[in-house]
Design goal:
Blueprint: E1 21-26, H1 31-46, E2 50-55, H2 62-73, E3 80-82, H3 87-93, H4 101-106, H5 109-112, H6 115-121, E4 122-123, E5 126-127, E6 130-136, E7 139-143, H7 144-149, H8 158-170, E8 174-176, H9 182-206, H10 217-231, H11 249-257, E9 261-265, H12 269-276, E10 285-289, E11 297-306, H13 314-324, H14 327-337, H15 353-363, E12 369-371, H16 381-396, H17 402-415
Parallel strand pairs: 1-2, 1-3, 8-9, 11-12
Antiparallel strand pairs: 3-11, 4-5, 6-11, 7-9, 7-10
Helix pairs in contact: 1-14, 9-10, 9-16, 10-16, 10-17, 16-17
The protein binds beta-D-glucopyranose.
Residues 27, 33, 59-61, 84, 135, 249, 269, 300, 302, 375 line the site of beta-D-glucopyranose.
């Protein structure tokens, strides 16, 4: 029978595992994330594998990665871990990840999967993780019921958003759903940076780590935008300007869904969550891009790595990896999660219109695909955390000017050591 994940076993004290059991450390704890993980667990159960759950709460995965590090140091590595992006290289270099070249070759991953996905999971020529889904980050959600009720057109540009915000406020509705949690602030910021800088400059800054790119006035403009946007999240009826607070992302989505706020910038996981609340993309909310970014796809890719050295589990780990990459699992999982399949050959007309849009954009070779900083596509854990912290401090400290924050970011990048050559 298809069993769902067992309730979070403490990640630090894994239960003894039998044949076919794989403990999975991840950070999918919201209703939609949970449902997507349950979907994977059910497909695994059909194939004689058992997903033993090791969920560590905390959006964006900061706490989960800390737990994973601790467990590795204590030689209590889980068999499977959500390990996205650049950290994979560090982990693979230390010999911690099982190479999945055999699975990739058997299932023809290099043909069926998007090249960017394969590039993301390949380290020194070896496939070291199984990709699950691609998220778009630069989404602007507008609550259609609210805009309709107030007789407002859906805005497409920053000026239009500002005008709408003033009217929303006048009607007693907080314009923007927002959280002061550092990773959420920085996720909004990276979409604004893309808006102001455009894909080429964004890449020069965060992918190529070109210090001179940090002199560009686009960075200062993006920081100003972030501050404005956060100001629009102050409660409509508060003259004193109460801060949005460090709330979990699910609370932000709930504010938007319950019409307590009308606009939101967030990655696709928000669409998954809105789905579990009965809201559908394009029917109940628009899935536009953040102004100025419609042609670009600011992405992050969710992947599960198999940890090496789990004597006796390799066959099960490979079986799981194979399943994760299969077309049916890809479709089922991503439909719930809000992301899009990592394969090019999946019938996406079965996904909602927002996902289809994201898929076609990502699949188009002319689309600038831009890696998410916050979600580890451009930096490893340490670098991205340092940048998040700097952006977060600026956002919450009105005495810090955008120009000062720009200099801090440039200094930080200098300290993080620029790359010697541009990535391909
Ligand atoms: C992950 C998503 C997850 C989101 C919120 C991102 O870093 O890629 O899968 O839903 O964080 O926790």
């Amino acid at each position: 029978m298809a069993a769902g994940p067992t309730v979070a076993s403490s990640a630090a004290t894994p239960a003894a595992e039998g044949a076919g059991e794989l403990n999975v450390l991840h950070w999918w704890t919201s209703a939609s994330e949970r449902a997507a993980a349950n979907h994977v667990a059910a497909r695994m159960a059909e194939n004689g594998l058992k997903w033993v759950d090791g969920a560590v709460a905390g959006g964006g995965g900061g706490p989960a990665i800390k737990v994973l590090n601790e467990r590795i140091l204590r030689r209590m590595a889980p068999k499977v871990a959500q390990l996205n992006g650049q950290s994979m290289t560090e982990w693979a270099d230390m010999g911690l990840l099982l190479e999945l070249d055999g699975v990739a070759a058997k299932r023809n991953w290099s043909k069926v999967m998007f090249p960017q996905v394969m590039a993301q999971v390949t380290v020194h020529g070896h496939v070291v993780a199984a990709p699950l889904g691609i998220q778009r980050i630069n989404n602007l959600y507008l609550n259609k019921a609210v805009f309709k009720r107030l007789g407002l057109d859906l805005p497409n540009d920053w000026d239009g958003l500002e005008r709408a915000a003033a009217k929303l406020r006048a009607a007693g509705i907080t314009p923007v759903a927002f959280s002061d949690e550092p990773w959420q602030v920085a996720t909004v910021f990276e979409a604004m940076l893309l808006s102001e800088a455009g894909p080429v400059l964004y890449r020069r800054m965060l992918e190529q780590r070109d210090l001179s790119a940090f002199d560009d006035p686009a960075l200062e403009r993006a920081l100003k935008r972030l501050r404005n946007w956060r100001n629009l999240a102050l409660p409509a009826n508060s003259a004193l300007g109460i801060a949005p607070g460090e709330r979990p992302w699910t609370d932000v989505v709930a504010d938007f869904a319950a019409e307590r706020a009308a606009m939101m910038i967030m990655g696709d996981w928000a669409r998954g969550e809105l789905g579990t609340m009965g809201l559908e993309g394009e029917r109940d909310f628009s899935c536009k891009a953040v102004p100025g970014t419609a042609q670009a796809h600011l992405y992050s890719i969710d992947t599960l790595a198999m940890l090496a050295g789990n004597g006796g589990s390799q066959a099960d780990q490979e079986k799981m990896a194979e399943l994760l990459g299969s077309a049916t699992l890809q479709l089922g999982y991503n439909r719930i999660k809000g992301s899009i399949p990592v394969r090019r050959d999946v019938p996406v007309d079965e996904l909602d219109p927002c996902a289809q849009q994201s898929f076609h954009l990502f699949a188009n070779p002319n689309t600038p695909r831009v890696p998410s900083l916050v979600h580890r596509m451009a930096f490893g854990e340490v670098g991205k955390n340092a940048i998040i912290e700097t952006v977060h401090r600026f956002a919450l400290d009105p005495s810090q000017t955008p120009a000062a924050a720009q200099r801090k970011l440039q200094g930080l990048l200098r300290a993080l050591a620029p790359k010697t050559k541009a990535s391909p």
